[in-house]
Amino acid sequence: MRHLNIFLYEFKHFVRSPFKIIALLLFIIASVYGLHNGADLYEKQNAEVERIYKEAETKKETILSYFENNEKGPKNRPWIDVTTPFWAIWNTPTYHFKKPSPAIVYNIGQTEQYGFYKAINTYSSPYDADMAKEIANPERIQSGTLDFAFAVLFLLPLLLLILTYNIKGQEAEQGFLPLVFTQTGSKNWWMLSRTAFYIILLLFVLLGLLLYGAMLTNVFETSSVFWSVFIWVTIYLIFWVIIYFLIIKYGKNTVSNTLQMVGVWLLFSFIVPAAIQQWVSIEKPTNLMVDIIDAKRDKTDEIYEQASDLSDKQLFNLYPNLKQTKVASDTILIKGARRRSLIALINIAMKNATTKVEKDNRSKNELIAKTYWFNPLTYFQNKLNHLSETHYDDYQTYRNDIQNLVDKRIEILVYELWNDVTVDKIKYLEYNKTLKK
What we know:
This protein is mainly alpha-helical. The chain contains 16 helices and two strands. Helix content is 70%, strand content 1%.
């Protein structure tokens, strides 16, 4: 009964504090706004994926019409011959998508830093210019994009501060704190009970917001993501509750407690992440992708200018079965097949160049991960990124899939060229089926 009275006391204190009510309402408004930003991005990306699917289908039907009308290609581009493997595969519309997770409603993460679809051709690379957006998250925030994760990570601790800053301090300043402790029996339990009221209040608010977000993008269709997000948000809330409770417990007055709370919030929310970011930038400078640029420019020229014997040797090492193909023993046909196949050697050079970029990125991420024990905000941000499939690792998997599709496309092209295949409608449909997997 005594503990229930403490809860009722705190409830009356809360409803009589317009400042606290307004702060809670502002947090809810910011969170709802963030949820709608995430939902809008989810809808836009799905709509774009659907548009590209239709566009690819239209292009496919156009190529099929050439076969049906015994034409080799568009009349205004007579050099295109879709009955040859090179042009047939070139005109096989293949896209790879990173379809947005419904949980993106909670956390946009790195979604706006990377592309989410890629047109695959024999010259593609996971690090092409269309794979990265020109605008980064800090600029997005300045231009108005705010997600639910931002509200939780940055605004929730501020809200908790506003709700709890005067626990114990007001009674101490008015001189009747000893009387309160006498009536309640335990100083710690009295403070904990008052704090618990706000924990329960915020948990109900967060659960309601998460349910609202789930309705916007059907989050419940993706197994247990909803409850995983709720658990991590709860852990994050408890993390800040423990810090603030210790400050309140050992603090002397309201002003002192408030200043300490604000100081801790600034430390973990801005100072530590900024300092770590600066340190990592010094230790691991941004990779300017010079190796990729050199591979695209210099290495490509070098491969096209090298001796035929060397090209044949490299191609046979890459695809040993080429030696048994029809073209391998034909001194006339091999020239054209070899020339078209050099893209496979360029692809290897590009893969070697991207390996260094990916190694640098991994080492940078590992360096940041070592700071999690004193950089909690980044730790929780990465947890939410994983849950919403917007983490760097998710985009690395996406890039790996793109590279695998490029490798497969080139391998099919090379073997078709060296077997001197003539493409018809059935073969073209086979390309469309095979190259999408």
